[in-house]
């Protein structure tokens, strides 16, 4: 019996090293292995022979590793938060196009100004969606550490969405500058909203550079995304609090901005906690 337990422990350790399985998956596979061994023993096989047959039917650690890697790639490709973020981005783009068309049809805006609003809103919205992915990542990580394939897919999604945010925001800033030159006689005046747009551009460029140069540091990128959301929220709502400049519309934003910053600080603190701590706390509390 001791030899059987030793061999199962060695098999489990080899499987963890070759297949990269989580503890939950290893527990499930070990349970299947033991059930098969018990069935074979009841059928008349010795314990050693039963274990050999059961291991052969499960497959080698290398084969299992390849199968689990394929499964993880499939799961990562369909991770719900990434799909939702893409769908929301498409919905935002469609809504903004509809807004632009409506403003042009009733004569309330020019093509240049409407395009500026659409581009900036799309760029800011894409940056906020990256922060939304960070929320989902941190919440999921509190229960179980994300798998490597999921992290790889998440990093790709962040790169694509941040690249779109950078391009859209840059286009919006340039269009706003052209409009200001034609109507205000200056291309750039360091208005609070203009300054905020420049800071958002710089932040998107930093995120792209970080994810490109450090593709394996997904956790750090997700924590940085919280700062990106705080920057966008401040760029969007901050000028209203100053009650100064071309883009100070007088709408109250102090409470909303404070709530946004507090929520992101709380999620940042949660992201600094060890992976799976909520799951372990729930198990220990039983």
Layout of secondary structure:
Layout lengths: L1 H18 L3 H20 L4 H12 L2 H17 L2 H26 L5 H31 L6 H37 L7 H22 L4 H25 L11 H19 L4 H8 L2
Helix pairs in contact: 1-4, 2-3, 4-7, 5-6, 6-7, 6-9, 6-10, 7-8, 8-9, 9-10
Radius of gyration: 26 Å
Proportion of residues in extended strands:
under 5%
H/E topology pattern: HHHHHHHHHHH
Structural class estimated from helices and strands = mainly alpha
Total number of strands:
0
Number of helices: 11
Low-confidence spans: pLDDT under 50, at least 5 residues?
A: 245-252
- Shape call: elongated
Straight-line N-to-C gap: 31 Å
What is the average of the pLDDT values? 79
- Largest sheet geometry: none
**Percentage of residues in helical conformation:** over 70%
What attributes characterize this protein structure?
mainly alpha; 11 helices; elongated
How would you explain this protein's 3D organization?
- The protein has 286 residues and is mostly helical.
- It is built from eleven helices and no strands.
- Helix 6 packs parallel to helix 10, helix 7 packs antiparallel against helix 8 and helix 9 packs antiparallel against helix 10.
- About 3% of the residues have low confidence.
